[in-house]
C-alpha cells in the first residue's frame, strides 16, 4: 500500500506512458511495481521461507513465514492435521501502519514528496519490499494482570529486512493465533546499502541472554545491529553496532548462520558466525571476556570452484555444510585453538551417490541425522537435460549406533523433537527385524538407574517398530485403490423380486469380469509377501512367529500400562493440589484411584500415599460420570473407553481420563490416543493438562 488506490492507478499510468525512458522503462521492467507483468510470466511461487522455533502455534509446533514472488509476507500454521491455514498478512498490516504515519518512520522525519514524484513512488515501494525474514528464539515477557500480579508469557520475534535496509521487528505473543497476537512492531535503520541476508545473533553469557541482528550486504560488509527488547525478561543487547567485515569487495553475502558453542580453552560459551560470500566462507568468533567483546575473523578458501548456492549448519556440534551448483558438498568441522579456531573440511561427492546432478539447496535435520539436498539432472555426454526434474534427496550423516547413543544421552528427552534420530533407529530395526543387544541393555540400565518416563517411551517405540517388522506384509498396498466392482444393481438384489438363478448368473458374470492384470497383480503381491518372512512350512514356521508376536504384544501392553499409571499419578497430583474438600472436578478421581489400586501386583508407595490423601479430601464422595444419552453411571474399568449399562461407548481422554462425550475430539499425530477439547468452564489447571503431548510418543495433539 503506497497510497490511495485511485491515485496509485493514475501514477502508474503516468509513469508507464512517460516520455522519459529512464522512468518508463524502469517502471515497466520492475516487477515490484508491476506484479501482474502483462506479457511477462506470472509471479507465482515463493522467494523465501523461514520456520519458527517449536512451540509457537496452538499445537506447540512451528509457524511458517512465507515470502511470495510478488513480495507478500504471510504467516501460516498447521492447525489441523495436513491442513495449513494463513493466520496473518504482515505486508498488509505494515502497509496500513506506514499509510497512517504518512510513510515516515518517526514523527521527527521531514515530510517527503508527493506520490507523483517517481523517486517517492520508488521509496514507498522499497520500504515495504521484504528481502529476508528470520525468527528469533522464544523469549519470556512479563504481563501484568488486573489484580497487579505478573505472569510470564512466551513471545517470539520476527525480523523482516526490507530493500531500503530498514528492519521491522515484530513481537508475537505465544501461542500465535492471528492478528490479535501481535504485540508490537518496531523499525530499525541498519544503514547497510543493498542488504541481502539477515540472521539473529543470540548469545548467552553468565545466564544472561544477549541478542542482535546480523545483516549482510550484496557489496560485502557484515555487521551486528543492537535490538532493544523492551519488557523482555533477562535479555540484553549491544550498546552499538559491531562491524564483522567492512571491506566493500563486491563479494555478496548469500547466507549467514549463527552457532552457539563452548570454548574448551577459555572455559566459556562463545558464538560462531559463518557467512557464504561468493565461493568462500567467512567466519567470525565472538567471545565475551573481562576485556569486553573479542572478535576473531577470517575466510576459508579453496572450498568450491563455483559460488556457494546454499549453506546449512548443525547446531548440535557446529558442523557447517556448503554446496555449489556442480553437485559438490563440503563439510566444515570447527576445531578450537588457543587463540581462535580453524576448520577441517572434507568433500562429499553427490555424484558418487546420485550420479551426475546439479544442486540447488541443502538443509540439515534438527539433530543432524540427515542432509536434505535439492537436485536436478546434471550434464550427460556434455549436454544439459531438456527438462528439469527437481528432487529432494536424503543423505544420512550419522550411523545407527551414533543415533541410538544420542537418544540415550539426550537432554531434550522428547521423541517428537528428535524424530530424525528415531527414524534412523526405526529403519535399522525394520531392516534387521530385531533390537540390537547393546541398545536393549543400555536402555534397561537407564530405566533402572533413572526411571524417567522418556526411556519408557523410547522402549515402547522400539517394541512397536519390532512388532511392525515381524508382521506379514499386507496382500495389497494400502494406498492403492481397489478396482473391484463393489456396486450391486437394484434389480439384482433380493428385495426386487429376483430369483436365485438370476443371482447365480449375475455372480458368474461378475467373476468373469476380473481382468488378467488383476490376477497377475495378485500373484506378484503374494510372491513378495511370501518373501518378506522366512517360512519353513505351513505350520512349523508360523507358530514360532505368532508366539514371538504375542510375546512382543505383551511387552508393549506392559510398557503402555506403566506409562498410563505414571500419568495417572500426575493427574491425581494436580487434582490434590487444586481442589478443596468434597469438590467435583469433572475428572473421574475415584475411578482413577480404584483403577490404580485394582492390580495387586502394582505396589507403588507414592501412589498409595497420594490416593490416601485424595480419598480423605473427597470425604466418601464418588462424583461418578454419567452417560449423556441415558444418564446412567459410566464406570471406570478401562483407560481407553467408558461403557454404560445400556451399552453406550465413549472414548476416554488420555490426558485427563474424562469421557469424551462430544462429536469432536483431538487425536495425537501418530494416532496413539485421543483427547477432548478444553471448554470455557474448565479451570486453568485442567486446561494446562490438556495442552500436554501424547504420553506414549510425545507427539502433539490435533
From TrEMBL:
Domain of life according to the entry: Eukaryota
GO cellular component: transcription factor TFIIIC complex
Biological process, per Gene Ontology: transcription initiation at RNA polymerase III promoter
Transcription factor IIIC 90kDa subunit N-terminal domain: residues covered: 6-398
Domain DUF5921: 399-476
Pfam families: DUF5921, TFIIIC_delta, zf-TFIIIC
Listed InterPro entries: DUF5921, GTF3C4, TFIIIC_delta_N, TFIIIC_Znf, WD40_repeat_dom_sf
GO MF, one annotated term: histone acetyltransferase activity
Residue ranges annotated for the Transcription factor IIIC putative zinc-finger domain, each copy included: 619-669
Region of interest (Disordered), ranges: 494-547
PANTHER family in alphabetical order: GENERAL TRANSCRIPTION FACTOR 3C POLYPEPTIDE 4, GENERAL TRANSCRIPTION FACTOR 3C POLYPEPTIDE 4 FAMILY
Protein name: TF3C4 factor
Gene that encodes the chain: Gtf3c4
